[in-house]
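Service request form, structural biology core

Requester: graduate student, group of Dr. S.
Request type: structure prediction, single chain
Budget code: on file
Notes: please return the result as structure tokens.

Sequence provided:
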Amino acid sequence: MTTLAVCQSNYIPWKGYFDLIRKADIFVLYDTVQYTKNDWRNRNKVLTSQGVSWLTVPVRHLHLGQLINEIQIADQRWQSKHWRTIEQQYGRARYFDMYGAELSLLYRQQWQSLSALNEALLRTLCQLMQISTRIVRAEDYLLTGDRNERLIQLAQQLQADRYLSGPSAMSYLDQSLFTAAGIEVGWMNYSGYRPYTQLHQPFVHGVSVIDLLFNTGPAYRDYL
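Core staff response, request fulfilled:
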């Protein structure tokens, strides 16, 4: 059985995002849909000595219907600010030296496309976490119809017979259409993650996966 997962690209996502990826054989970056402001596409949270803090990539959002893969980054000053925050808050973490050097290289580059930035970070983080799932882009496939039809078409074109979805899709996913197409639907469950030792308290689950990596290193799988 070949399992497919599909999600819009996020900026340095939380651990649940990577849990979804590692449970799939193929993961599709679904950036051919409308960009949503104040969402996870261009920002995420890290844990600091003052509590949770947002890291936000500045973007040019020109109109309501603009697709995620059309979004451009607004300026090139954010990289040094983000990396300085990451280094200051996680530099004392046990595994920072194991992963920090490779991640820092991406923050030294100039990025124009938000999708390209997110994909590069995602692929690097998967490599560091030894996640071998095949990652592809939705824009490379011919998709028509509503969101259910598009997901089914992705599964068919990628020869997947199981679709693994996040729980938020329960409100719109028509499982009968997937069943009729011979595709089994599975649901992610993000509850029950074990806490791990963070540099700052109280413990917070919903921060970027870098928090998990820097604090637990190769043992990260024990907390997914």
